[in-house]
Each structure stands twice: as structure tokens, then as C-alpha cells.
Amino acid sequence: MSGKHPNFLTPKIGLGCMNLSHAYGTPVAEQQAIESLHKAFEMGYRHFDTATLYGGGKNEQLVGKALAPLRDELFLASKCGMAIVEGKKIINGRPDNIRKQCEDSLKRLNTDHIDLYYLHRKDPNVAIEESVGALNDLVKEGKIGAIGLSEVSADTLRKAHTEAPISALQSEYSLWTRNPEIAVLKATQELDITFVAFSPLARGYLTNAVSSVDELEEKDIRRNMPRFDSEHYPKNRALLKDFFVIANEIGCTPAQLSLAWLLHQGDNVVAIPGTRFVEHMQNNLSGDSVSLTTSQLNDLNQLINQSTVSGPRYNAAQQKEIDTEEF
């Protein structure tokens, strides 16, 4: 993947744009969001990630409006196969739908090509080879530069890779979500595929941004995530005390420590933390400059992992949407 575009792995931290329009409460006002994206570019971000789903297409429109003048200088990623249709989230990986969503994404993003286009979720009713075949047709037509998959298992990845080259796999990965370590991280390394980690700051948990679910806006997706509820979150917050001690000893912020740990998990790993705050963008971008010793990595691994974190990452309905391995 790095050979297709020099900015995909440099820097190793990109920007997840979802937070500006989707999932974490009230969307940011358009002009403020555009200014934030411009500042992100100015400070050094080159990999920008969005999706058809986010804000019902409004996030792509926002990214397109803000970044179109800079298009040749950045790496643009988006996703298809999951969208808001008549107020409901629908997963549809049929070839005709993938093509239509791509055409719509190109218009919203104000570009003639998307560097990396993911299947946002595997459609359980469509063979992965069929969906990937449709994406490969878009590659041949020059509408997308490369194919990605999101939240799929190692088995699905291998099947897809036999149909057409997969350049990137995106999945949630952080100290508190270790599912990629079961199989898919190793598979990406064996197949020379870039692993793109979303929610690398554990949806704000690792930065201590959330004291209680009660302080979140009503529409914030974390209100429906078990790890943030009143049963599990106090237990999870208790783990942060020692985590912050380690960050303080190293001389970095908790966010930078989280990202540094992640980037130490493999040369093919990149992270796309999402934020709506410019100061957080700057803080996060410095995460790849933090070096950790083997001892420090071991301490972090023992402190926050699948055995010490309380609660599943998704509720039952959300779990049905993904294809990743589970502990």
C-alpha cells in the first residue's frame, strides 16, 4: 500500500473524520469543522478517513468541501456498504449498491477518485468475493486506488485477497480492544496488508475524557456500549491510574502513550484517531515520536488487556454487524 501513495504510512497517524459529523453527539458547525480540517492539514495530517455512513453523507460532503483544494497532496479514504437509508442503518454489499455508493461518494467528496475505498462491513447475505469483485472493477476504472475491508476476520480477509488485492484492513484496536491480536493482525502482516486502527484511544477512555456515561450527550454512541455503563465503567476507570503514572514517567500525554503502544505492534500498523478538537489533533500527531522500551510495553500489556477490561465492546445488536474474531 505504501508504494501506491507516499503519504499513507507517513506520518503513521491519520485523522478519523467521523467525530465531526456522526456518533459523538451534536455535529460540529460546518465552518468550524472546515477550519479544523484545514488546521489538521497544516499541522501535518495527510491521511483523512471518512465514510458513506457518517452523518448520512454529510461527513463526506464536509471533507470534500474542506479538502478539495488540497486533493493532490493528501490520501483520501472512504467506505461503502453501510449507509443510513430512510433513517435506518443498512448493510448492503451487493455490487450494484457498491457502485452506486462509490459514485455518490465521489460527488460528495468533490473528486474523481478515492485513494482507498473500504467495504465498511461484510454483508452476511453476499459472498465477500462478490463484493470485492465489484470494488476491483472500480479500481480498474480508476475510480478508487485500492481496496480495503473493515471489521472482518482473518478468514474473510484471506478469501477476499484471493479475489483481488486487499491493501488495507481497518478494525478497532487499542489497549482495551485486543481482538485483532487473535488472528487478523498476523494475517495482515503475512499478506503485506496495512492494518488501520480506528478508535485507538478507546473512544476517549484512554485519555480520561469521560468520567461517566451520564455526562455524554443523549445521541452519543457510547451510551449504548457496555464498557461505558454504570456496571463496567468504574472498573475500567480504575485501570487508568497506573496508566497515567506510566505516561507521566515517560513524559508524554495519555493519548500519545496509547498511540505509541499501538504503533509498536507492527511496522504495518497505522492509526486514525478521531477528534473534533484542534488541540487534540496536534497532541495525537506527536504520538509516533514516543519510543517505548520492552519493559514499558510489557507493563502496558499487563495493565489494560482483554482480561482486565470489564464488559464487551459492543452490545448484542452492534455485535451482529461485525465479522471479527472474539475472545
UniProtKB/TrEMBL annotation:
Keyword Oxidoreductase belongs to the record: yes
Residue ranges of domain NADP-dependent oxidoreductase in the record: 12-304
UniProt key word Oxidoreductase: yes
Key words, A-Z: Oxidoreductase
A cellular-component GO term for this protein: cytoplasm
GO molecular function: oxidoreductase activity
Protein name: Aldo/keto reductase
Organism: Marinomonas piezotolerans
